[in-house]
Every structure is written in structure tokens, then in C-alpha cells.
Predict the structure of UDP-3-O-acylglucosamine N-acyltransferase.
Amino acid sequence: MEFTASQIASFIDGKIIGDETALITGVSPIENGESGHLSFIAQDRFSHYLDTSKCSVIIVSENLVAKDTYNPTLIAVKDAYLSFQVLMNLYQEMQGRKQGIEDGSSIHETAIISDNVYVGAFTYVSEKAKIGEGTQIYPQVYIGKGVKIGKNCKIDSGARIYDYCIIGDNCVIHSNTVIGGDGFGFQPTAEGFKKIPQLGNVIIEDDVEIGSNCSIDRATIGSTIIGKGTKIDNLIQIAHNVKIGQNNVIAAQAGIAGSTTIGDWNQIGGQVGVVGHIKIGNQVKIQAQSGVNSSVSDRETIYGSPAISYNDYLRSYVHFRNLPEVVKRINNLENNSKDKTNE
Amino acid sequence: MEFTASQIASFIDGKIIGDETALITGVSPIENGESGHLSFIAQDRFSHYLDTSKCSVIIVSENLVAKDTYNPTLIAVKDAYLSFQVLMNLYQEMQGRKQGIEDGSSIHETAIISDNVYVGAFTYVSEKAKIGEGTQIYPQVYIGKGVKIGKNCKIDSGARIYDYCIIGDNCVIHSNTVIGGDGFGFQPTAEGFKKIPQLGNVIIEDDVEIGSNCSIDRATIGSTIIGKGTKIDNLIQIAHNVKIGQNNVIAAQAGIAGSTTIGDWNQIGGQVGVVGHIKIGNQVKIQAQSGVNSSVSDRETIYGSPAISYNDYLRSYVHFRNLPEVVKRINNLENNSKDKTNE
Amino acid sequence: MEFTASQIASFIDGKIIGDETALITGVSPIENGESGHLSFIAQDRFSHYLDTSKCSVIIVSENLVAKDTYNPTLIAVKDAYLSFQVLMNLYQEMQGRKQGIEDGSSIHETAIISDNVYVGAFTYVSEKAKIGEGTQIYPQVYIGKGVKIGKNCKIDSGARIYDYCIIGDNCVIHSNTVIGGDGFGFQPTAEGFKKIPQLGNVIIEDDVEIGSNCSIDRATIGSTIIGKGTKIDNLIQIAHNVKIGQNNVIAAQAGIAGSTTIGDWNQIGGQVGVVGHIKIGNQVKIQAQSGVNSSVSDRETIYGSPAISYNDYLRSYVHFRNLPEVVKRINNLENNSKDKTNE
């Protein structure tokens, strides 16, 4: 990264206050500004950094500019937060996409690799797999038989995608995530547990992002489904036959047990557990660490293990914290009552 | 997959009702039947699908057949669920096992590879490791020094098995699971934590299945042990020196801390935590998300964090939910009592 | 491993009681001693094993020796536990470090590999990465662009370290851990969630050990930081922009949400969840499975979800378990009160 203040100002249509040749080579959060770095200030409570920051260039919301000169070069814009996002997106696009098949990858002769695809070294692509245009597959990835991956996806190093799974367009799968491992299905017998074959697959729709070290199991029959636009954090378990709708956000270390159905626009907190065979509606909020053991209607907010209404849980928890006092009050009442009886 | 109704009927000794040349190329769950697919109906509550399903062939329990002709071809058997399982197992066996050493694997000259073994590309087998007959090791697996793997195992892509660990016959280890990483052992000193060498190993007995992204740590000295027939789901932590008996089922994201001993035929729910140095008996059920901090006797069912008897937890939780009401009742009693005192 | 009793005695300056030529080829925990193995006894409650153990050689604290002869050969020292640790460390050092670049690794021509480095097969080192002296990188590791790794580190098989992350000296990163994956940052819009570029990095200071299957996300801008001497167990989530200080111990399956700051010498239990944007002080103890949703002062011990003072939680939990009885007492009081009113 190496830009002048005037280059940056031109990207975001900003007004320079100070040295337009100031050079930046990196980006800092405003609390830890470094010389030669760019940062931004969009809120009044950070505006004292305009005077004290070591950053060389700061993008600032124009209403926060109070003087004619500052130590750093400022770039004044309407909304510094938005302009900074625009800039970061631009920067990421400038990095370009990787392209080409690296030496040392293993691609089956029947696999179909579209144009402008990147396949890194030590990646293994099995028979009849199909990789869509512009998709980047980093080193050391495993792609099973008949897998279909759409356009413009990014599959990070060490991801594993098992036979016949389907991934849409514009998806990101982070490192060491496993898609299409066998579901956890066993028949109990007197001698032990007998494996139930897991013959379905996983379908991941367009615009899904899945973090690192997740396990998304294949269906017993049919498909485990992750709907369009859903974003899944790290270390998450999605069991066999789960169906997740569109635009959900699921935080790290949550787990969804088998055959549960989840609607659209839900927010599921970190370390939440959801039992199998239930239905979560739409726009539901599940607080972190909750244990959900029954179906949930649209727009509910829930908390606790087992999870109940968020407000009810908090109200009960206040009394839980106060239980020693509550019991003391009962003791007093009993003593009073006895006193009275003895009167 | 491509079978006619008559081929399927012959595998499971069923009676065809309809077109015996009907062709199936896949399998659907009955709720989402597709044309050209096979499904099954074993319960009365699904029998309306006999008339409405798009499936081409349906295996059905004979007592559910009420008419002479149906739209799909039916295959009537005594127990449709069992017959379907038989069929799925048959189908999986037909897929065959992979065999042979793929180009691009790295196998130490002192390693012993038995007959009919598959070793995928980019798999690394260290010195003096031994791989038993018929075992399949997928691409990108790491096998450490002196590791012993039994017969007919399947080790999925990206699994890591560290030095001197031992795996029995007929085991399945899924992708990105790490067996024999160092236990978490540090000596506190004034300057910081000093690593305690972890010199033991992990022993996995016959017929064990371990899901993806699990961490099974090696013992400090001696062995961490997973007993015969035990099934472990995804994202599970088994700490150093844990001993797990036979035929346990452990659900996703559970964690067992160091040196704990677990008997046989236990069921451990998802996201359960078990502290170190305790003893879980046999046939114990631990509900999901429980935190077990003391030893548990045979046949108990427990819940909560810290975990107590399942029924006691549920009973107390009912009152927990009702605490605001309970406290209101105490307020009333106190007011009444004051009123009386004032009388 | 093959040593005589006299060799071992010389390493730890011990006094032999018995056959000084006794040969050991392995190490057992004292509860499961094996012939030909070494063990140790440092506590009186284990001293009956001096007579019954099958071990060939036992290191024993001198105050526990009560007779002139025992079946196994004894090596008497002041503190058997410490001497055993010394011995195990010595043994591990004897194993030596791996060295050299294995065939089949892929190292970019602009990467800098220092002296005495090991790079295993199928490991991928990207452009301008720098690997310090004596560092061992096992097979199948991914090292991104511009990554800097210090001296004498060990990076286990399947670890992934993304672009521009920095790792200090003497660090251990276990298998399949992902360092520098994108933080989980999305802008909600009416059409769905828009990715916020994650352009920062991860900085891991000296003497840090990170277990297997962990996810340590890169900062949005700036750095996610793991401080000197901190030890992190398996399956742990550290979100973007988290700052962790020195000499912390974090147990398996814990998760720390974005932008939270953690001081020094804290102990964080297994499966703990910490919300984002809060501050944990120093020498704090967080009990396993706790959910921390507000800042915590130095030296507190906390428990519960949401977490409160450890003692308060336990006191309240005693009453929680007793709630059915508590409610019965209220019923009685109400009945008495009614009786009185009716009198």
C-alpha cells in the first residue's frame, strides 16, 4: 500500500486540508495511529485525535473540522466512516485476484476448470468437479467428486469440500472448514452403534460466507442447505439435514443440531446451541450461550438454557442473584408467623 | 446411482406395485420428493405422500398399502425403514474403496503400507508408521513417526495423527481432526508458564468414529484412550489423559478436561463441558450444554451448569422462570404481616 | 527411549536403590505401570506402588523410602516430581529438532528462510515471508504473503498463517489452527450483509503457545494481539481486534468476541464466552462455561451466564436447586396467612 493524500482524496471526492503529497503506506485505528498511516474520524468523541494523532493522513467528516490547519493532512468528506469503507473496498479490489493453476496441484482429468480460476499448489480436485469462472482456490484444499463451485468464490487453504456438494456464486469459505462430512447418524444395537450411511449433500447458495474451522455435515438423504447471503463465523457446527434460510448471521462456536429449520434474517449469538428437529422463524435474536430446545416464532428475542424470552430471563436472573436475600425474607416471615402462633 | 424398480425390489425382497422398469437416479426425503428419485414411507402419518409424492419409486411398509395402484411405483416390504437402510448400506458398499498410492504422496522408506491401502496425494507418512490392510488415507493427511493404523480404516483429508498414536481396526477419522497434539500442561513460575513435555500418546480402539475438526490430545505420560465402538461428533475437545470406555456417543462441541474417566454406553450432549479428574459411570445421560463438575454414578441423567439431576434442574427452572411472581408473593406476605403487626 | 537406571540417576543426581543396570524403554503413569518402564512417586498416597508397581525403575522422593530393598529399582531424589520434569525436558531435547527443506514444499523465491530451519513437504511459503533461525514448519502448512515468523518456533502440520501476520520467537502453533483469517464484519443493508474488508493483521508475541483447531482472526484495521507468554488451548475463537496481554491461560473452546481487551495473568476456563468491546483486568479467574458480558476488575473470580461473582453465583445456585422447597414454604405461609385472616 502506498498512496498520496491527493490520490486518496480523488478516490473519495474529498477536500484536502494540508500537504497533498503526504504519503501513506498503511492504515491504523485512530486510537493507535502511526506515522505514515491513514485513519479516519467520524464521531465527535474522537475529534481530539485530529490534534494528537501520529497518522500522516486522516479522513474526517467535514462537520468535525474546526480549524484551518492541523498537524496531519486531513481529507474532509461528508461521512468519513462511509468514505473509509469505500476506500478499503477499493484497496481490496486493487490487490487483484490470483489466477492460474500452480505447479503441484492435482486436478483430475475429468474436472472442469473455468476461465480465470486460481488453483493453488497441493490442492486436490477430484473427478467431475466443476469450478466456476473467476473462483480462487488456495493451496491445500480438497475438492471431492462431482463438487460444483460457482463463480467468483474464494476457498481458503485447507478447506475440505466433500463429494457432490454444491456451492453458489460469490461465496467465501475460510481455512480448514469441512463441508459435506458425514452426518452423525448411528443405529443403536445391543453390540454397539451401526453407522447409517450419509448419502445426501450440502448446498450452499450464493453470497454465503463461512468462517474457519466450521463443520457443515452432509444430509442423510436430501441436502443440508445454507441460504443466500447467510454469514457464518468460525468454529460452528451445522448438523445433517439442517436448512438455513437467507441473510442469517451466526456467531462463533454456535451449533445447530440435525434437521432443524431456520428462516431468514435471524441473529444467532456465539456459543448458542439449537436442538434438532425444531423450527426457528424469521428475524429472531438468540442471545449468546442460549440453549434453544423448542421452536421459536418470528421476531422473538430469547436467552437462557433452556432459552426463554430475553426480558423474562433477565428479570428472573435479577431475582436469581438475589436468592439468598429472598430466602432470608422467607425465614423472617416464618419466624414472625411462628411468633404469632405462639402468642 | 441408476437402478430400476425391479433391481431395488430384488435387493430387499420386496413386492412391486406399478411399473417395474421405473428408473431412479437419486434419493429424496419424502417431504421433498423429486421425479426420478427413490424414497420410503414407514409411518402412517406420511402415507398421504403415496398419492402426492413426485418420487418415481417409493419403498413402503406393506401395512400402509391401501389401494391397487398408485402414481409412483411402490415396493412393499415388511419394514420400509429397515429395508431402506439395507439398501443405503448396499449402495455405499457398491461405491467401492479407493486403492493404491497416488502420485505426489510422501511416504518414508521405513513406513509399512499393507495390501489394498489407499494413500492420497499430498499425504505425508513418517518413518516407521504402519498402515493396516484395506485402510484408506485421503489426500493431505499427516501421519507422524511410529503411528500404527489398523485395518479397514478411513482417514479423511486433512486429519493429523501425531507420533506414536495407535488407531485400531474399522475406525473413521474425519477431516481436519487432530489426534495426539500436545496436552495443555504448563508449570506456573514467576516469569511465566513453562511447558510440561507431553510424552504419552493417544490410543483409539476398534470401531471408533471421530467427526471433523476434533482435538484429541496426547497424554502427558501413558495414553489418552477412546474405547471400542465410541462415536464422537464434530468440534470436540478430548484433553490429555482422558480415558473413554466403549460405545459412548458424544455430540458436537462437547469438551472433556484432563484425566477424566468415562465408562461405557454414556450419552453426552452437544456443548457439554466435563471438568478434569472426575469419573463418569456407565449409561449416564448428560443433557446438552451441561457443565459437569463432579463424578456421576451409573444411569443418572443430569442437566445444568453445574449439572444436577435432570428432573431437579427442570423443576427448579420452572420456578426460576416464575421468580418475579414468587417475589411478588413474598412482598404481599410481608405487607400482610406488617398490616397485622400494625393492627 | 532406552536408558539404564544409572544413566537416569546421573541426569538427576539421584541415589540408586537396586539394580543400576535396569533398563527402561518407556514411561508409565504410576497407576498403570508397565515392565520395562520408568515412573515416579512424589506423594505418600502413592507410595504403596513402591511394592506393587510393574515398573522397572521408579524415581521417588527420598522421604518416602522406608526399606532397604524394593522390587523395582528406585532412584531417590529430593523432589521426585521436579526431577521427573527435568528428565522429561531432557528427553524431549534429546529428540533434536528437524532441519532442512523437504522435497515437495513450495517456497516463493522472495521468501527468506534463515539457518537451521525445517520446512516439511507440501508446505507453502508465499512471497516475502520470513522464517527465523531454528524454526520448524511441519508438512502441509500455509504461510501467506509477508508473514514474519521468529526464531525457534514450531508450526505444526496444517496450520494456516495469513498475509502479513507476525509471530515472535519460541512460539508453538498446533495443527489446523488458523491465524489471520478475516474478522467477522458485515454491514447490514436492505438487500443483505455487505462484507467490511478486514485489512489488519494478527501479532503473536514471544513464547506464546496456541493449541489445535483455533481461529485467531485478523483485525479490521490495526492488529489482533496475543501477548508474550500467553497459552491458548484447543478449539478457541479469538475475534478481530482483540488484545490479549501477557501470561494468560485460556482453556479449550473458549471464545473472545471482537475488540475486547484482556490484561495479564488471567485464567479463562473452558467454553467461556466473552462479549465484544469490554475490558478484562489482570489476575481474573473466569470459571468454565461462564458468559462474561461486562468489564471485569483485577483479581475478581466470576461464574455464571451472565457471569457474576463466583461465590454469589454458587450461593444463588444452592437456592436455585432448592426452589421447589422455597416455593412450598411460601405456599404454607400464604395458607397460614389466609387461615389467620379467616379466623
